[in-house]
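Tokens help. One example:
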Amino acid sequence: MIAKLGKGTHVTILTMARAPLALLIALSLGACASGTPSSTEPSAETTQAISALEDRVADLEADLLAAEDGRTKLSDRIDSLGDKLAKSLDRLQESLAQVRSGSSEAADSAASALASAQAVASDLAVLEQRYEYHLRRYHGGGG
């Protein structure tokens, strides 16, 4: 008796008889291994390993929380320092602008003072020349 199931697949009585035989062998091998503890009840080693893993996970969770707290504090500190640095740079820029303005005003003031000094020196030179002229002309001498 041959039945055609699909493209190129044939099932015979012999192959159908092999399936229950394979199932019986698998069940027998499983029963032979019954000397081990039941798979529904964990062994003492498994229980200890699970307990150790739970402790390790708890430790790691605590470490993670501490690290996250430290990261948050560090991030806040960096933000605070960044704000302080920005304010310091703003103050420095303002100071530089004032110095430039002050130096510009000082340069203008110095130029004005120099012009005034030159004018006074020129006036003094004229006065000296007149004085010497008058001394020579009216007093017979001088320089």
In short: Residues 1-6 have pLDDT under 50 and may be disordered. The chain is about 80% helix and 5% strand. The two ends are 156 Å apart (CA to CA). The beta strands are 3-6, 9-11.
